[in-house]
Please model this.
Amino acid sequence: MQIRSVDAMKDALLEMAKLDGSIDKAAAKRNQAIAKANAAYDEAVRADVDRRQELERGVEAFAAKNEGKVCEDGKRSLELAYARVAYKTTPPKLDLMPDWSWNMAVDAIKRSLTPAQRKLALKVTESVDKTGLKKLDLDIDKLAEIGCVVTTETTVSITTYPDKVAA
Model:
């Protein structure tokens, strides 16, 4: 639209202001409807969400304690048509054995490992280089001799397939 006078500009500004008001009222009405719908949704699903969380805690607790019963034939998951329970193990990480400090491990490394092994296992600051120590692939007894142990963690993951279950 091409405006050719001050009066036409004023008229356009007035119309724009009215349109903005109309748009703002519609947006406010929409936002109220959305808020009302969200509140109704939250109320409608609250019991289901609470029950699902309760079930998930129960499944996780049982699965964590009963991996041998849950999985068959050495598998790491139980796959059902409607859900999966899977066990995931973290990569091995080097930790200290109980009652050991890293300073004690440094002293033990100095006593127990060859110079070439010490070069990998110790940093210049004489702290334990976990990555280098892991690369040495020492047996359990040798690790115990220097106060270390290889640990892993297993977690449970749950995936559901609601589209495969009748509501």
